[in-house]
Every structure is written in C-alpha cells, then in structure tokens.
C-alpha cells in the first residue's frame, strides 16, 4: 500500500521525548521556549509562540488583533474547515471568496471586491504549502488598513520571493503567520501549532492568552526564590503545547530543509511522469514561490468520475484524497447565502485528487502511481 502521507520520525524524536519525560517537566516549559526560539530564527521572525494546534493559533491570532462580533474576515472557503471556524470562534463572519484555479489560492482580485467597511482582516491561506500572492494581498490589506493573517498550517519550509529576496513563510509580511504540526503536515509534533510575528506586543498577548490570561507563567513561579502570586488579566485559554511535543518538534525542525528539498524533487519527478497525460492538469508554482509540496494536487480531465478514479487507485494499493474541501458546503456554513461566486473552489474540490507524497517515497512508487493513474484514465 502506498499511503497518502507518512511522517519522518525515528529514534532521535523518540529519545528527545524520552529525555523530556524523564526530566520531570512535561507541560509548557524549557523545551517549548527553545522550540519557539529555533523556529523564529529559522523562518526569520522576531517572535514565535507555540500552541496546542494551528486551529488554536488561528483563534488566538484573530482574537489578539481584536476580531469580534460584527466584524467580517475575508478568507477562502476552499480550505480545511479550521480556517473558517477560527473566525466564527471570535463571533465574526467569514466572507468566502474564490480561488485562482491554477494555484488553489485566494485570488487577490476577488479579495479586493469582497472588502467592505466591516472587514477587519484578511485570513489568507498558503494552500497545500503553495505560497499565496502575499505581495498583492499585503498591499491590499495596507491600502484598506486592515490586518493580514496567514494560515500557514501547511507551509512550514515554503518560500516566497518578495522585493527580490527569498523569504521563508513565517517571516512577517502580514501581522501573524500560523503553522500546524499535525502529522499530515511536513513536520509534526503529533498535535501542535506555532504563531510567528514581528510584533512584541502581539507575542506577549499570545503568551498571555494561551495560558488562561495568567500574568506570571508557571515556569517563572517554579524557578523563583521568592513567593509570587499570579493574576488573571483576562479570559484566556488553555492552548499550551507540552514539552514532549516541543522536544519532538526541535528534532523535526532540524530535518525541515532536507524534507523540503526531497519533496521538491518528488514534485519534479511527478511533473515529468504525469506531464503527458491528456487532460490532466498539474499543480502550478508561480516563479516567485517555492512550495514545500505538503500535498500534490492534480486536476482530472473533464467528465472523469473523481470517486471512481480514487477507488480504482485504492484497489491498486494507492491511497489518494479528493481536492481540498469547501467550508461553505458543510453544515456549519451551508445555510448562509454566499455573497461571492465560489465556482472555482467547488470545481477544485470536485475535480482534483491529491496523490501520495512523502519524503521517504521512492521513485519506483512514484512510477507505480503515475502508471496506475494513466491506466485508470485510459479505461
Ligand atoms: C491542517 C490545517 C489547519 C488546522 O491545523 P491543526 O493543527 O490540525 O489545528 C488549518 N488550516 C489549514 C489550511 C490546514 O491545512
């Protein structure tokens, strides 16, 4: 069986987790602090704050910039449902706009049309690790004096060229970039999230909100020679990452560059192997973007039954997934009348499939996937 994805973990991560367990400090502590420091340094952000998952990160990000009831946040429907849900958590309204079908990312022109006097922020998504058009979206956000938050859940290790320089996603262009370390992403801590920002004020706010609004973290009280009483400054959350997760994350971070270059090579080979299949559209990488290829998404030829293709591949021992979901078609959002046309989002969900891609994948398996897809489409 060729799986859709496979995390890379070995004795290094096992040993790091073991050492942390034996250290006696299990929740957010020195490993979390070190992980934040290393992550910020790698992506080129001034600050990073680890949290329990990326959904929590998105919630805190929107909360910290003051998104609340009555506000609108422009975002993609064509995304994992957590993007939309994080807006709802704040009592605000997600305003869905369509994607550019070639990159599966928000179309800046559609975003511009969707901005109203109630728009508080744009929540952009680097879908499947492909950087969205940050330069255009940032200019738009600046012009309207609204915030730009990046859902970079899939985009650890992706890069974008802005003003002639290649930056890692996470280097602050918007206010805050939120990452996920779920096992389906390119590096993992089991569950986990990270918020990167250039603002010390925002970073302090995240660090307050992620642990119940507590004025003095327990690590500080624990290490103090003096008795300290903490205060609770506002209604916060328990969004802490554990030190075991952070210890694993630090090892994963050391592998990130290698994982991404391997995935880029795999994407390159897929492009060769699949390039001559009639009617099949391959993913497009703009010349200013370097994807980490968290997912490899192909669009099936017209009139081909998506489910039948996926079933046929599964019968041949190859796991696939359908195109990224559309939140506006799911129960929590389906009753709302959509203001903007979302036909490219729906087509992307209905006509695309994701192929297996993971750093350990060997050429032989990629050839098997390509041959099986070719044969299936021929029938
Ligand atoms: C995975 C994902 C999330 C949620 O991440 P978790 O860490 O599982 O909470 C949010 N947005 C996008 C685009 C994702 O792919």
TrEMBL record:
TM helices/strands, residue ranges: none
GO molecular function: pyridoxal phosphate binding; transaminase activity
Protein species of origin: Nitrobacter hamburgensis (strain DSM 10229 / NCIMB 13809 / X14)
PANTHER family recorded: DTDP-4-AMINO-4,6-DIDEOXYGALACTOSE TRANSAMINASE, TRANSAMINASE
Record key words, sorted: Aminotransferase, Pyridoxal phosphate, Transferase
Designated name of the protein: DegT/DnrJ/EryC1/StrS aminotransferase
Modified residues (N6-(pyridoxal phosphate)lysine): 185
Lineage, highest ranks first: Bacteria, Pseudomonadati, Pseudomonadota, Alphaproteobacteria, Hyphomicrobiales
Family annotation (CDD domains): AHBA_syn (cd00616)
InterPro entries: DegT/StrS_aminotransferase, PyrdxlP-dep_Trfase, PyrdxlP-dep_Trfase_major, PyrdxlP-dep_Trfase_small
